[in-house]
Amino acid sequence: MADPMKIRAQMAGTNATIRVLMSHEMETGQRKDAAGKVIPAWYIQEVTGTHNGKTVLTAEWGTGVSKNPFLQFSIKGAKVGDKVAITWKDNRGDTRTDEATVS
Question: Among candidates 87, 88, 81, which has minimal Cα distance to 52?
Fold first, then answer.
């Protein structure tokens, strides 16, 4: 299982700004190890963000996203105490979900 995501959800006026730091190797499948063998591709393919259980963000990623990706987005109409959850799924079938409370 991957390390937990670092999620910060803060109010900024009537919107909540969500910042997410995901821990993932994000291998492209194009690098080689010391023995000259290709390192298999391993990257996040799907990212979903929810606000109080309602989907507010969906993204499809590929090999062009950097290691330990950072994501930021805003949610209109959020309130302090609302729950925000982020879920990712990678090309190996691994998945991770973490949540934060808007402050």
Answer: 81
Contact between 37 and 59 under an 8 Å Cβ cutoff? The reply is no
What does each of the 103 residues of the chain score in pLDDT, given as a tens digit? 578 999 999 999 999 999 999 999 999 999 999 999 999 999 999 999 999 999 999 999 999 999 999 999 999 999 999 999 999 999 999 999 999 999 9
E-strand ranges in 4-94 read 6-12, 15-21, 44-51, 54-60, 70-76, 83-90
**pTM higher than the cut 0.85:** yes
Residue 90, strand partner residues: 44
Instruction: Report the Cα 61 to chain-centroid distance in Å.
Output: 10
CATH topology of domain 6-101: Immunoglobulin-like (2.60.40)
In terms of C-beta density within 10 A (0-12 exposed, 13-18 middle, 19 or more buried), how is residue 34 classed? Answer: exposed
